[in-house]
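The pair is quoted verbatim below.
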Amino acid sequence: LRNSIDRWRQVPLEHPRELYRSFIKNIANGEVAVNFLQQINVKLNISNPDYECRLDHEEFRKALWKTIEELQNEGFFGVCFLVDGAEFIARRDWATDTWNYFRSLKDTKNSLKPYFGMVLSGYRELKDYQQKVGSPLLGIAAGIKWLSPLEERETKELISLWKEITGIPIHDRGIQALVRWTGCHPYLTHLALGIVNDQFQEYKRVSLRQVIDKILYEHSDIFVSWWNPQQEVGRLDENDRKVYAALAEIRTGSPITLAQHTRLGAGRVKSILDVLTSTGIVRKQNEQQYTIGACLFEEWLKTLGYEQSK
C-alpha cells in the first residue's frame, strides 16, 4: 500500500486514463515502506535467521491507520484490498486464523472498519469453505455474490457493441448462434469473437462451424479443466458430472427429476445445479427447470466420447 501511494504521488495530473497507465508503470522504491515505519516510530522485528521482517498486531494496525490518514489527505476515503485467488487460503490449515485476523482489524479501538475494505475473490473452494465453517467467512463478508454468466440480453449487447467497433458483419441469426454455443459465458464469448475476427481478417467471411472446431481443437484444455477427470479439488466432482450427464440425456429437468435420475438428494442436486449454472454449461429457465447451456462444452464431450466421459 505504501508503494502504491508513492507511485500515485509521482504521477503528474493527467487525463484519468493516461494517469492510470503512468501509475502502473511507475515502480516505487521498496524502501518507502520501511522509511515510513521509522517516521511513525514503528520498529520491525527481525525474528528469524532469514531476516524476515515482522510487525506485531498493534504495530501493524497503527501503521495501517496512519497510512489511511495520509490517503484521506490525498482525497481518498479509505482503502479496499482485493484478495484474488482467496481459495489458496481456504485450502490451508491456517485459513481460519487468517480470516479471524482480518476480522480483528475491524474490531480494534479506533476502528478501521469504515475505511478498510476487502474483496475476496475465488472459486468454488471459497464457497465450500464458507459452508464448512457455517459463517460468511467468519464475519468478514458483508455480502456474498456467486457469479453467474451474462444474461442473454447482455451477451447480445456485448456482441452488437463488438460488431459496431470492428465493423465485422454478423447477422441476428449469427448472434443467436454465438449465444447458444457459448452459453453466455464471458470468456467463451470473448474467445469465439476473437476467432471470428481472425477468420474475417484472413478470409473476409466467417464459418460458424470452423469457429466451433477451432475452439474445440485449440482450447480443449479449458473443458478438460472444467470436466475435471483428474478430480482436482474445487472443480467439478463425480456428482457434478453425474448431474450434468443426466441433464444432457433428458435435455430439460428440475432438481427433483434429476435427483431421480442420479439417485442423489434433491437438495444436493439443487446445490450442484447452482455451480453448473455459474459456469454457463447449464442454463436456468425458471425456478424449477434447467437445460443444457454452452453447446461448446457438450460438443466437446461428444468428441471425447460421451460414454467414456461419464
